[in-house]
Design a protein that fits this description.
Strands 1-2-3-5-4 form a five-stranded antiparallel sheet, with helices on one face. It is built from three helices and five strands; from the N terminus they run βααββαββ. It has one domain: Heat Shock Protein 90 (2-Layer Sandwich), CATH 3.30.565.10. The chain has about 160 residues and is an alpha+beta fold. A hairpin with a 2-residue loop joins β4 and β5. The model has no long low-confidence stretch (mean pLDDT about 85). The protein has helices spanning about 25-40, 45-70, 125-130, and strands at about 15-25, 75-85, 85-95, 135-140, 145-150. The protein is globular, with a radius of gyration of 16 Å.
Length: about 160
């Protein structure tokens, strides 16, 4: 599967950190997150930035596995991480089921006093992503989903 171009004009002036094609499985996501932590650390990103990128990337990749590949095995996810002047850019592409319409807004934050037993099971991931990133973009075309976002204020040496 090819979908992330190495010679993308938007990649000029950025520092490549990681480009990888992984199976669309939870185990592969876990391994990709570990690799991302190592690569960002080697690039000089601070611990807080690495933690934020990990949260965002975990939500995105796990959503791809759970929703885009929910009905079939054997899918792949293309992942590209670069350091830019604006932060850490995450680009993800897959050939799974597209999102119907716009990206979900996600659940709003809970009000004080919500009982633990009354918490909904999910739906907070997109809210978290939206709170932590800038320039969130998604489109689907030619049988492929593309998502891009930037974790801002990355501290990279």
């Amino acid at each position: 599967m090819s979908g992330l171009q190495a010679d993308d004009p938007e990649d000029r002036g950025v520092v490549p950190v990681m480009t990888s094609e992984i199976p669309g499985t939870y185990d592969a996501v876990r391994e990709a997150l570990l690799a991302m932590r190592r690569k960002l650390s080697q690039a000089g990103a601070d611990r807080d930035t690495i933690g934020t990128v990990e949260m965002v990337l975990a939500e995105i990749l796990n959503n791809v596995v759970e929703h885009a590949y929910h009905d079939r095995a054997g899918g792949h996810i293309l992942l590209k991480i670069t350091c830019t002047e604006n932060g850490i850019r995450i680009t993800v592409a897959d050939d799974g089921t597209p999102i119907n319409g716009a990206l979900p807004e996600g659940r709003a934050a809970l009000k004080d006093g919500t009982e633990l037993d009354d918490l909904p099971e999910g739906g907070f991931g997109w809210s978290l992503i939206r709170m932590l990133v800038n320039d969130l973009q998604y489109h689907s075309g030619d049988g492929r989903n593309h998502l891009r976002c930037v974790v801002p204020h990355a501290s990279v040496k």
